[in-house]
Design goal:
alpha/beta; 12 helices; 5-stranded parallel beta sheet; Rossmann fold
Length: 249
C-alpha cells in the first residue's frame, strides 16, 4: 500500500515519517498552507469583552497556534475566568501545552455537532461566546449558539492558502509512485485534490483509490464526488491516522 498524505506542513511530513518507520511508503503533497488571519490583531479586544463564565470555543489547533502567538506578542495571558471548549482532543491538548489551561472537548468524533451536544453549551442563554477559527470555516457552531441565545463573535486567527501545482505532472508522479491510498483531513483539501487531477486520471485512478477521511461529513462529500472505498478515522491526529492505515494496509 503506497499512501498519499495531503495534510499541510508540518503535520504531513510528520505522518509520512511515522509511516516510513513502520515500513509503509508514503508521499507528501500538501495542498494548502497557513498564514495569520485577517482579524487576529483584534483578539485582545475581543477577549476583553468576555465576562466570567463566557465561552471561548476553539475550532482547530491552527487557531490556537496563531492566537497564542498573538497574545505573546502583545504581552498578555489567556484569561482564566472563561469556560474553554475545543472541537476535539488534539485541539484541547494543544491549548493545554501552550497555556496550561484545561479545555473541555467532546468524546468521540471531533466535530462542531458533537461539541454542541455538551450540556454546558445546550443551556447557554445570555452568555457570550468567542470562536477562534480560520477563514471560510463552517458556521454551524455560530448559528446554533445564536439560536440558543448566545451573543457570538469570532476571530479569524489563521487563513488557509491554496498551493498551486500542475495537475498533469502531479498525476503522472503519483501514478509512477503507485499511490493506492489517499489521506484527506478536510473538505477543502478533498475538493482541491479532486479538481487538481485531470478528469481522465480522476476517474481511472483517483476515485478508485482507498480514501481515509476524518469525519462522516467528509465521507459524505467523498461519496458524492465518486469514491466508494472510504474509511473514516476518529480524528486527524497522526497517531490515530497511523493506526487506521496500518490496520487497513
Amino acid at each position: 500500500m503506497n499512501i498519499l498524505i495531503t495534510r499541510p506542513s508540518p503535520y504531513g511530513e510528520q505522518l509520512v515519517n511515522k509511516l516510513l518507520s513502520f515500513g509503509i511508503f508514503a508521499y507528501h503533497l500538501p495542498l494548502i498552507y497557513f498564514s495569520a488571519g485577517k482579524t487576529l490583531s483584534s483578539l485582545e479586544q475581543q477577549l476583553n469583552l468576555l465576562s466570567k463564565g463566557d465561552f471561548l470555543c476553539i475550532v482547530s489547533q491552527h487557531a490556537i497556534k496563531y492566537a497564542h502567538r498573538q497574545l505573546l506578542n502583545v504581552g498578555i495571558s489567556w484569561p482564566t475566568k472563561l469556560s474553554y471548549y475545543a472541537i476535539g482532543y488534539t485541539t484541547s491538548i494543544k491549548m493545554y501545552k501552550l497555556s496550561g489551561i484545561l479545555v473541555k472537548y467532546p468524546i468521540g468524533q471531533a466535530s462542531s455537532e458533537n461539541l454542541l451536544r455538551l450540556p454546558e453549551l445546550m443551556y447557554s442563554d445570555g452568555k457570550r461566546a468567542l470562536i477562534l477559527r480560520g477563514n471560510n470555516g463552517r458556521t454551524i457552531l455560530d448559528d446554533t449558539l445564536e439560536k440558543r441565545g448566545v451573543l457570538v463573535s469570532s476571530c479569524e486567527c489563521y487563513r488557509r492558502q491554496l498551493l498551486q501545482y500542475n495537475g498533469e505532472e502531479e498525476s503522472h508522479k503519483l501514478l509512477e509512485l503507485n499511490i493506492t491510498t489517499v489521506v484527506v483531513t478536510s473538505g477543502e483539501i478533498l475538493k482541491q485534490l479532486y479538481y487538481l487531477v485531470p478528469q481522465f486520471y480522476r476517474t481511472s485512478w483517483l476515485i478508485q483509490c482507498k480514501l481515509v477521511v476524518v469525519s462522516p461529513r467528509l465521507a459524505k462529500l467523498a461519496k458524492y464526488l465518486g469514491w466508494k472505498n472510504i474509511i473514516i478515522a476518529q480524528s486527524a491526529h497522526n497517531d490515530v491516522l497511523t493506526h487506521v492505515l496500518i490496520k487497513n494496509s
